[in-house]
Amino acid sequence: MEELKKYVSVKDDQFYHQGAVELLVFNFLLILTILTIWLFKNHRFRFLHETGGAMLYGLVMGLIIRYAAKASDVGSGTVYECEKLKSGPSNLLINITNQIYEYQYKREISHHNVNDAQGNAMLQKMAFDPSIFLNILLPPIIFHAGYSLKKRHFFRNLGSILTYAFLGTAISCIVIGLIMYGFVKAMIHIGQLKGWEFHFTDCLFFGALISATDPVTVLAIFHELHVDTDLYTLLFGESVLNDAVAIVLTYSISIYSPKENPNAFDAAAFFQSVGNFLGIFAGSFAIGSSYAVHLTKFTKLCEFPMLETGLFFLLSWSAFLSAEAAGLTGIVAVLFCGVTQAHYTYNNLSPDSQMRTKQLFEFMNFLAENVIFCYMGLALFTFQNHIFNPLFIFGAFVAVFVARACNIYPISFLLNLGRKQKIPRNFQHMMMFSGLRGAIAFSLAIRDTESQPKQMMFTTALLIVFFTVWVFGGGTTPMLTWLQIRVGIDPDEDLKAETASQSASNLDKNTTKTESAWLFRIWYGFDHKYLKPILTHAGPPLTTTLPEWCNPLARLLTSPSAYGDQMKDGNTDYILNHDELAENFESSAHIPVPAQDQTGSTQSTGKEDIHEGDLGLGAYKLQLEHPAGQPKMNSSA
Amino acid sequence: MEELKKYVSVKDDQFYHQGAVELLVFNFLLILTILTIWLFKNHRFRFLHETGGAMLYGLVMGLIIRYAAKASDVGSGTVYECEKLKSGPSNLLINITNQIYEYQYKREISHHNVNDAQGNAMLQKMAFDPSIFLNILLPPIIFHAGYSLKKRHFFRNLGSILTYAFLGTAISCIVIGLIMYGFVKAMIHIGQLKGWEFHFTDCLFFGALISATDPVTVLAIFHELHVDTDLYTLLFGESVLNDAVAIVLTYSISIYSPKENPNAFDAAAFFQSVGNFLGIFAGSFAIGSSYAVHLTKFTKLCEFPMLETGLFFLLSWSAFLSAEAAGLTGIVAVLFCGVTQAHYTYNNLSPDSQMRTKQLFEFMNFLAENVIFCYMGLALFTFQNHIFNPLFIFGAFVAVFVARACNIYPISFLLNLGRKQKIPRNFQHMMMFSGLRGAIAFSLAIRDTESQPKQMMFTTALLIVFFTVWVFGGGTTPMLTWLQIRVGIDPDEDLKAETASQSASNLDKNTTKTESAWLFRIWYGFDHKYLKPILTHAGPPLTTTLPEWCNPLARLLTSPSAYGDQMKDGNTDYILNHDELAENFESSAHIPVPAQDQTGSTQSTGKEDIHEGDLGLGAYKLQLEHPAGQPKMNSSA
């Protein structure tokens, strides 16, 4: 994208074609990756995932560019003085030998980076703009993750996932921060890092950014081998939410500014940071989930899948942009937007659009992921300000390992105290093993590489990504065998079996199995009774779930098809059997309608409205007698 | 995209959020457009197409921004002197009050534009980079056009389409150039355009860029109403190829540089321009069509639709970039890449990928188109260097009208001399009417708005686009009625009926109907006998079509399934009846195999190869006896 930017912005022929050539190099690498991966998949080699392959090819290409290309750009590397300006304007007009050139503000640059940064024009051109990752490439990846969360299993394990994501990431961040601070102290002691400013907050910053796990390689193998769904969900859910936490945490730490001594603890600033974290997180969550439009509920856009898909895409992107414009984090917003879209909007879409949106984001995810990993490989040789410090790197590897252990084992122990279905030892080991680092850690690290500590962190983060993706990613299959984790499970079978036992148990309010249940049950009840009917065509009619005095509103918001659609709640959340359903609704459905007819207190909405309500319930009763068919409300209304 | 660029490149918070806000404005406009269009489609109003709607909303938003936003950017508008530099480097480092800022080269700017261009920061921010259109937004549109050309009807009318596209566009360009030159002379005469340089080549330049028709609105209605397929194909094919011609023509004219007097005719420079045109066109064509990979024929990528789709996308993009990198025009390359992909690669893809690629490009086309039209609306008020010259605008409208008439009627007359199935009068009127101007004319006009003549051309082109899209686009349905053009034709019915009569006639070498046939027949024969079998799994085995001495190569290149797949040539190009097929192959299939067995001259390829050839033909004969079934070659081999 930075390539695109360069490509489109410079008209001069030489630069112009340069841009095309660079993009071609990238395309070529990605094509190579695809072909290699096809070869591997065809032969069922599972030790190299496409992201690993992309990284490898990037690495090779970086090596070639590094040592084959020559410095050629004349005139850069020189700093010009300008006394007339007080600050950098966004556009600068410069008169050079009677030709006026327009320059666009790019960035502030540190004095110590001026020389290295300007050395090799080719390397410079191969460098993406760092903010591209967080603003262009990551959002589709994160959205896709949110959009493809296995809903049922996700909500069932919600408590555990949230604990891993919030508490676990916080633990990981602090543990890494502390260990790194120890190493930094030691490095200063032995005389490295002379003249650097390296505070505890910097260590925490590193801890936060490297805490974002990205087990895409592992998850791909899990998916392929049909590993136990609970393990998959725990790991996937943790990694998705943990990204959001790590991103907001990194941001909160980077704006933590104690008033006086940066090394001393400043309670006010600390609490302000905590407040920032909570505020940003909650705000982004709110914006993201509010974009799950019920627009799609009342428009019959489903006749035009292209319009529907377009609307879906634009709204999701708007969620990102709104959060950014409001000074929050767009990525978190887009994640929750994805989750809510999957949960509500998805059900309003036409089948055609459901597939289109899924495939579109799958494709964008695929491309973006491979571009990032390919670029990581490239960056190892083409990034010009690497600082390899063996001690720091060693420290980071130790810290990451220890922090992962401090995250998984204690939290699993705590969770097992409350969970009906325990997280077994081998699952814990697998989760420990699956703490890969990837795109998010890299994107956070590359965002700011101005100061030397940040450059050292970037280099270290890159090495950690390489190591974990190749070693742990490649070792997933042997590890699964070694830990005797069962594979080849059909998730639908699993679901049906459990649903059968659970639909009985849950409605009887007896939890017999599987649950960290209370959170799930509260959520499920609220969601099923109120949110689903308001936002989608599914769920019980609101007239039956809301209190009496809300009836006019309820009838307005309830989709006509809700009265009938009940039984085939497309969502596979629950497959209720008919007895239960009948029972469930005979008890509740009788209350509102007669009450309304008798009291007449809600007649302000007019007769048509009441009629529609009646009709709805009438049809619903009809539906109970003929559960297979679905009455067309539109034709009879 | 320029928005994206701004968005990602500037870190400073204020600018950063500004970028998000601008993109949000765009998203908002597009969402509005989608909802409006849904409303219109739902009520079957056909007078406003989504592109027209996008333009309208863009216009309104432009008006708001124009008069509601205030100038705020301090420091821009001032030109700084720099004596130390001799030319503009790509990156500039400037020391401002001891902080070093990096600036990126954006463009050269004319002296007379310095003041207006810098007035309003908001307007400036709303301006896309002009090269975005040709490099980012148009390629998917053009590719999609090529990819969705109705193949059979397209090739059947190939001669007519090529004539309209090449000869017609050339006529249009010259006629407009001449008329505009007259108007310019008149304007100079009455004292307008003082001090401007306005040569005949500039007029021709305008003629070339405004000759690119874009009847997207009309075609959408045609598609919806199922208008006569031949008319649709003629119009669609003309508009698609004519874009390519206009783009290359514009480029050729812009680099036409006579040595001495720019007003005098310079034969050498003229022929160089013609040579340029032919070279660029042929080169782009070659690059574009060479990316129709038979990579996909031999890899069994179809088991992994995501990889396949990714590969398809990357290869198509590579076609564009390769052409650009080679100094040719990427758009033309991408167009022919689309056509060839549809003709060959498409048949090698798995059904899943066929749908994915179609939907992906459909979606990209939809978004890009609406962004461009929305931006056009915006540009009418936010572009800061408009030059409205009533006489020039009037002249341009007249010229466009006259040129379209000089294009369609004489060429149709000529074509009808040769065509079996004449182009009727009402079709000609409809084609005359459908000469809308759109995205390509706009993109070509906005690419260079430095000099005053170019600014005047841009303004005029914009107005022509507005007028034609709204007036002619909106008037399509009444016009169809008025011209009594039949609608509601099922293209498949049409196809079957004609195919039945034609498959008999064509193979007997008697053309009874419809054709400007000789070009088509030559092409079809070559394509069916050689290209299809080489590039796809379809078509007759190469062993039967190539001369004897090519047998080893032929057997290598022929897909095993070609021997059997024959009959169900998925392409609907021809549905041959079995007698013909049998006859066709009994005559040709006997020759190569015995010849090879007797002479032994081609045994260098080994026995397996021969065996496979035999097996293939054996199975093929089997297939003739049981035409309904399709033998699985893989299982028996």
From TrEMBL, chains A, B:
Keyword NADP appears in the UniProt entry: no
Where in the cell is the protein located?
Cell membrane; Recycling endosome membrane
Q: Which domain of life is it from?
A: Eukaryota
Instruction: Cite the residue spans of the region called Disordered.
Output: 591-637
Known InterPro entries for this protein? Cation/H_exchanger_CPA1, Cation/H_exchanger_TM, NaH_exchanger, NHE-6/7/9
- TM ranges are 20-40, 52-69, 132-149, 161-184, 204-222, 234-256, 268-289, 366-385, 391-415, 427-446, 458-483
Biological processes, Gene Ontology terms: regulation of intracellular pH; sodium ion import across plasma membrane
Membrane topology of this protein: Multi-pass membrane protein
Q: Which Gene3D superfamilies match?
A: 6.10.140.1330
* Subcellular location, principal: membrane
Compositional bias (Polar residues)? 596-605
* Pfam families, A to Z: Na_H_Exchanger
A Gene Ontology molecular function term for this protein is: sodium:proton antiporter activity
Extract the PANTHER family matched here. Answer: SODIUM/HYDROGEN EXCHANGER, SODIUM_HYDROGEN EXCHANGER 9
The entry's protein name is: Sodium/hydrogen exchanger
Q: Which gene encodes it?
A: Slc9a9
